[in-house]
């Protein structure tokens, strides 16, 4: 392999249509910043190009920077862009190309393409550094690699998150006008764990890192937070509220260090209900949003999803956060067996429980997952761009596709109008969103 002196790290745009949450939630490219930190340590020249925020195209960046190696990450919905950027890197610069990230870890065989040289199938970014240092392909344990058109498949291993370096946030700090979580702008990401110890049936997060939950020493986490020059922190673990003792330690350390910031995290309803007094303390140290998977409207669906939580628990969790003054972002699933009545009931439940923030995803069997096999004869699309939880990818059970989309968009419009009345989305152009919701109501499935 040629000598690697310059590396371009690419995070593709979320989508090329306006049907996404750009300008509402824009995520710091944390994964690339960990790699950037390792490259800096090694004295390798690097640059980041994030399609969410860049004003020049990836092709322009490639031509100007001429990298020896290009690393591209992304999720399922970005698959086409990831491959396109690898092809462009080959055509314009003759670069070595590496694909990594969440989608590659779970669906690496989909990346077996001529424009791709290596696929990182785990969180072990040190493998990339070894590759850059010239380690022979056959010694790279967590990399699939190509030789003369044949692919050598790697078996991923769990990664110990304690090995991660502190991210190099220089890219984030030069784009603080862009990275946000709703009104929290700028909002820096901090990761304290990989994977999730729960096994909800619809979720693919618990399969990451070979299904092994791994978390950082909480003292290191607080040290990192203290050093970030940003007052909003999004703890991006799939579930931050896992271990009561660890959370108590976190609260104590934040208090001791007198760190004053606002926090966003994911947390399950059963944890909130089990420790209401901890929620009060989290509020006091600055917890602002807790993103909670409420998922359904009845215990039948909760059981089918293996959520290990019931509707009574959901109701109590909403009340507890409401009483302590933390905003709950209630996350729901529009099941494929929904009727028009179910969509209307979902709106009524959200309203009756005074939940100001709610997000509804369409039930989506992830590509190459056991759930996908279960729905194989109902899959409607082969476009990975549709795997954004806003598109119907499998035939609904009780409504036509057109009727399903119609009711889904009516629900979104009703929730959005409610948010408008409450002023919770005042940072967006309301007119633009209403117009696009209405347009989609009639366009999809037609
Ligand atoms: S608790 Fe959340 S992250 Fe964990 S498996 Fe369930 S849905 Fe996935």
From TrEMBL:
Range of residues in the leader sequence: none
UniProt-listed Pfam families: B12-binding, Radical_SAM
Top-level taxon of the source organism: Bacteria
Cofactor: [4Fe-4S] cluster
KW Oxidoreductase (keyword) present: no
GO cellular component, one term: cytosol
SMART domains: Elp3
Residue ranges annotated for the Radical SAM core domain, each copy included: 182-402
Any one GO molecular-function label of the UniProt entry: metal ion binding
Keyword S-adenosyl-L-methionine in annotation: yes
Keywords, ordered alphabetically: Iron, Iron-sulfur, Metal-binding, Methyltransferase, S-adenosyl-L-methionine, Transferase
Name of protein: Fe-S oxidoreductase
């Amino acid at each position: 392999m040629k000598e690697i002196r310059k590396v371009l790290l690419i995070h593709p745009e979320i989508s090329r249509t306006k049907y996404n949450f750009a300008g509402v939630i824009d995520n710091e490219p944390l994964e690339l910043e960990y790699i950037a930190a390792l490259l800096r340590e090694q004295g390798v020249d690097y640059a980041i190009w994030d399609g969410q925020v860049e004003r020049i195209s990836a092709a322009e960046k490639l031509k100007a920077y001429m990298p020896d190696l290009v690393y591209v990450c992304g999720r399922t919905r970005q698959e086409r862009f990831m491959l396109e950027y690898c092809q462009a890197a080959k055509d314009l610069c003759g670069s070595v190309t590496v694909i990594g990230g969440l989608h590659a870890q779970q669906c690496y065989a989909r990346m077996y393409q001529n424009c791709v040289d290596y696929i990182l199938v785990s969180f072990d970014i040190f493998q990339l550094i070894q590759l850059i240092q010239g380690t022979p392909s056959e010694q790279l344990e967590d990399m699939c690699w190509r030789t003369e058109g044949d692919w050598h498949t790697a078996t991923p291993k769990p990664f110990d998150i304690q090995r991660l370096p502190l991210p190099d946030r220089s890219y984030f700090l030069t784009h603080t006008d862009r990275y946000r979580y709703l009104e929290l702008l700028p909002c820096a990401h901090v990761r304290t764990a990989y994977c999730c110890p729960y096994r909800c049936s619809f979720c693919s997060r618990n399969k990451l890192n070979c299904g092994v939950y791994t978390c950082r020493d909480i003292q290191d986490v607080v040290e990192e937070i203290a050093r970030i020059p940003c007052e909003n922190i999004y703890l991006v673990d799939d579930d931050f509220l896992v271990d009561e003792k660890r959370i108590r330690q976190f609260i104590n350390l934040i208090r001791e260090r007198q760190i004053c910031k606002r926090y966003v995290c994911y947390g399950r309803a059963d944890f909130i209900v089990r420790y209401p007094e901890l929620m009060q303390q989290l509020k006091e140290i600055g917890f602002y949003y807790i993103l909670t998977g409420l998922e359904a409207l009845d215990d039948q669906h909760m059981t089918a999803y293996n959520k290990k939580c019931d509707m009574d628990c959901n109701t109590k969790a909403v009340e507890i956060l409401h009483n302590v003054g933390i905003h709950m972002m209630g996350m729901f699933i529009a099941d494929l067996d929904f009727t028009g009545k179910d969509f209307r009931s979902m709106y009524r439940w959200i309203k009756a429980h005074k939940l100001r923030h709610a997000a509804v995803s369409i039930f989506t069997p992830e590509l190459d997952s056991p759930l996908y096999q279960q729905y194989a004869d109902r899959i409607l699309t082969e476009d990975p761009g549709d795997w954004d939880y806003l598109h119907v990818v499998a035939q609904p059970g009780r409504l036509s596709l057109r009727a399903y989309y119609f009711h889904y968009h009516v629900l979104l419009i009703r929730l959005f109008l409610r948010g408008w009345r409450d002023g919770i989305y005042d940072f967006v152009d309301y007119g633009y969103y209403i117009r696009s919701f209405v347009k989609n109501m009639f366009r999809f499935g037609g």
